[in-house]
């Protein structure tokens, strides 16, 4: 079967932006088309990954607006929402549109505009994805993260400092990402001395609230070289859910959605964790990067905390993780994040990652919706 | 290529329901699985068509909740939003999931809970899909319908009564649909004497605000017979956009999105309008059924108004349209409507439409988002 190629990628500056989501989407979309030398009128399908433009801005129908703004009149459009994994779900939708033969040229643009709302308001919109009983009891995603971190540290006798080292690493990477929200290093003392948010996690264990957009362009592998030599191929992709009610899980330190989605993606690709050279993981909270390292098969259960601590996942380590700076330093505009993960992997595999460049032929992106409520995993290979 | 089959279909009662959207979705989803004799744990992908659960109810993450409620733990889930065409877009997404090989068993459940909000509030949520400039000037979809109807009646010298005859026909059909919101006949005098909403259109030219859900189950055609003899096959499917700004259209009486989506679906199926035996059209407003009859190729431009007037689209006519009662009488829970259209076609093609049964081997469903902002068209065939 003809595989699906990525022939263009772009992202806007992430951070506090003075623009509505449709403007951010248009900015990323136009840049992506420009990079690939494709005119918007050639697009057959146009997907928008976005969780909550209606709740954040009172604006819906954003895919149709984007088709208008780009000049993609006629292209089929649709919004993909899978909460904080909307971007990864968008990659899956775009992949399906090409793999099914429905479209030979599909663009995905993910984006979210959040910073005009207070942190409390934005957190409340995000918390609306939880089970109503959890929500009524005041549970938010940060509180789940705090409880999970405490359990993990106790169960595996891991030092608190190991979580801080994830933040330190990702902030160091973000310095070299011109699109990142925070381009400054932080040290362990700063992380451990920052205000408590959900004990034992502190402010610097959490990603920020962010505005931004990212875009990817897809076509069948058989015609990718007609557009560019700098393309990558989706070798494997999969998605899966975990329990919607978090307390129903046997072991809260296992992300079952991550395990299941990875199994599908690995099987489809014929690759294993050992083949992966670089990864973008969903470090919405530092503890999540540790759990994903384990549940994706990179580390044994209970050993993932050593990764950043020992430099294994640093840019010059054996398995560079979140070379982009991750959600932690790059920022987390919900609908854009999963798209921006694949943007970073695409840049790495095509040797276009600038100061962040590592040596990699196979990359993996893991995007998490809610607290493992739904997960998508994408494995990319460099063009041969 | 293996085509995609529909092996199960269900819908809840449409109307004013004392249940939240996740309960409605679970009701339709469970009934659909039950009909096909499939256990929820077998589902590989689960799509939810829904425009605005966040805006209407303050609840997001509904696909994950549905996976939980049905016991479909592990199935990949995602929400599909294409405003009032979310249901049709969901059919397209579900089709792609099977056609791409990503899933061998996909369920789509569409639904919306709206009646707990006032008509003004619900209309405002829907109007948020329009261009901001249109929105700021107070344009809503009903007002577009009024202007378009006036232009059509003048341009083609069509009698006002011909629009009323669409409402009369669809209400007559709805009487025999046990799931319909309004199961009562109306006469021309009632329609023409009802309160003006957007001149020349009156209350009975408009569909109601509705709660409800509908579901469909999909698998590859090659294995459909293992589930049931009563399956249908998606012969063609396509989607397209029109201008996002309605006043930019050359001729407001032409639905360009309908024309383009139909062209894709007809080409894929190898069928033409002449092959279609029964159709479900998006009669959110009576004028829209007339325009779609023309832009789908059933009637010459300017002749569509004669269809209901002369009985051609009646249940005993040459081309029965909206045997379900249509959005007009069955109701229009945004995310459910496009799914319920395919439900009706599936029932007709499998000879399970009860009192509404017509003789049909090929059926077509046309679902419209916004005011032709995005359209999906699906053509189904009875199993051979």
TrEMBL record, chains A, B:
UniProt name for this protein: 3-ketoacyl-CoA thiolase
A biological process from GO: isoprenoid biosynthetic process
Gene3D superfamilies on file: 3.40.47.10
PANTHER family: ACETYL-COA C-ACETYLTRANSFERASE (PTHR42870), NON-SPECIFIC LIPID-TRANSFER PROTEIN-LIKE 2 (PTHR42870:SF1)
Domain of life: Archaea
Keyword Cell wall biogenesis/degradation in annotation: no
GO molecular function, one term: acyltransferase activity, transferring groups other than amino-acyl groups
Domain Thiolase N-terminal: 4-222
UniProt keywords, alphabetically: Isoprene biosynthesis
Claim: Transmembrane helix is one of the keywords in the record: no
Domain Thiolase C-terminal as annotated: residue spans: 238-381
């Amino acid at each position: 079967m003809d595989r699906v190629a990525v022939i263009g990628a772009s992202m806007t500056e992430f951070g506090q932006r003075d623009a509505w989501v449709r403007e951010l989407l248009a900015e990323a979309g136009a840049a992506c088309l420009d990079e690939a030398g494709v005119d918007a009128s050639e697009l057959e399908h146009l997907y928008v990954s976005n969780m909550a433009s209606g709740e954040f801005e009172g604006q819906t129908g954003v895919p149709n607006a984007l088709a208008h703004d780009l000049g993609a009149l006629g292209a089929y459009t649709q919004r993909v929402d899978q909460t904080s994994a909307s971007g990864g779900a968008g990659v899956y939708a775009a992949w399906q549109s090409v793999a099914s033969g429905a479209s030979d040229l599909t663009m995905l643009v993910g984006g979210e505009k959040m910073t005009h709302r207070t942190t409390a308001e934005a957190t409340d919109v995000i918390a609306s994805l939880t089970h109503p009983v959890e929500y009524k009891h005041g549970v938010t995603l940060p509180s789940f993260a705090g409880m999970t971190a405490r359990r993990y540290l106790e169960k595996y006798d891991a030092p608190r400092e190991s979580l801080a080292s994830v933040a330190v690493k990702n902030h160091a990477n973000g310095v070299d990402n011109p699109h990142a929200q925070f381009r400054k290093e932080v040290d362990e003392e700063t992380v451990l001395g920052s205000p408590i948010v959900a004990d034992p996690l502190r402010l610097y264990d959490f990603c920020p609230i962010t505005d931004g957009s990212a875009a990817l362009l897809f076509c069948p592998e058989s015609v990718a070289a007609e557009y560019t030599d700098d393309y990558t191929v989706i070798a494997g992709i999969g998605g899966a859910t975990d329990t919607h009610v978090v307390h129903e899980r046997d072991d809260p330190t296992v992300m079952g959605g991550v395990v299941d989605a990875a199994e599908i993606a690995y099987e489809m690709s014929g690759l294993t964790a050992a083949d992966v050279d670089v990864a973008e993981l969903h470090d919405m909270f530092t503890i999540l990067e540790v759990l994903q390292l384990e549940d994706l098969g990179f580390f044994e259960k209970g050993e993932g905390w050593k990764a950043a601590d020992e430099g294994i996942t640093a840019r010059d380590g054996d398995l560079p993780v979140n070379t982009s700076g991750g959600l932690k330093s790059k920022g987390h505009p919900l609908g854009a994040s999963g798209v921006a993960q694949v943007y970073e992997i695409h840049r790495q595999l095509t040797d276009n990652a600038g100061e962040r460049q590592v040596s990699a032929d196979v990359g993996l992106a893991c995007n998490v919706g809610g607290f493992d409520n739904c997960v998508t995993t994408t494995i990319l290979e460099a063009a041969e």
